[in-house]
Task: structure prediction
Amino acid sequence: MGAAERTEWRWMAAMLSLLGVMMTVIVVTSLAHALRPPSNVETIDPDTLHLAGEFVDSNLGSAREADGSVTVRLIAQQYSFVPECLTVPADTPIRFRITSADVVHGFLLIDTNINTMVVPGFVAEVRTRFTRPAEYALPCHEFCGLGHHGMWAHVTVIPRNQFPDLEPTGRLRCARH
Ligand code: CUA
Result:
């Protein structure tokens, strides 16, 4: 065997063992985590979302927390977001909490790094802070069925001082038709 051939075999062995390591990582992690989303693993029963708990209709929209931050709760379902339009203040810690009532949907604010899958049975959570007032389109970006292309919501970021002083049970959501 020539020197070139020996080198080729050595490289081939190195690549194959690397491949073996990567396959092992994929198999072990997918089995150990049962293919669940790896971050914020928080489960919820998608069949009873509307009936009780955090995602009942009256609790959806923007809520003011005691520490001044804002939590936005919404549901993704075939083929809309509930509520379809959201208002949040700028310069404020924002926490989006979103779950699905049926199949896998996507949650993406165009022109930002906010991007997550919305998997039924799990609550997806995204924390952010908007630096200035803006309008963001929020398309579902996971194919979820025939009406997928029409599944959009909108987020309006308003100046911090224009955001209303909500009661602890008050929720801000706009009526869009
Ligand atoms: Cu919901 Cu695509």
Notes: The chain is about 15% helix and 30% strand.
